[in-house]
Specification:
By secondary structure, the protein is an alpha+beta fold. The chain is built from one helix and four strands, in the order αββββ.
């Protein structure tokens, strides 16, 4: 199961990275939750080096908070 979680995390991180290349923040809806993310510092190519990711439930309460670091 750990390998599957790794693959899913990598895919989600890639999606977040691609969305943050063009903006400072974004959102991915999923069932009754939302995955909100905001760019951290950027490199010389203006690519995000890190992001803060927050999972919010349908009532607007934070379920989980993550800090992602991208390997550019």
């Amino acid at each position: 199961m750990k390998e599957i979680e790794k693959v899913i995390t990598h895919a989600l991180a890639g999606e977040i990275f691609n969305k943050l290349k063009d903006s400072e923040f974004g959102e991915i809806p999923f069932q009754d939750h939302r995955v909100l993310f905001e760019s951290g510092p950027r490199n010389e190519k203006n690519e995000p080096l890190a992001a803060t990711v927050e999972v919010v439930d349908q009532e607007g309460y934070r379920v989980q908070l993550y800090n992602l670091e991208f390997k550019n």
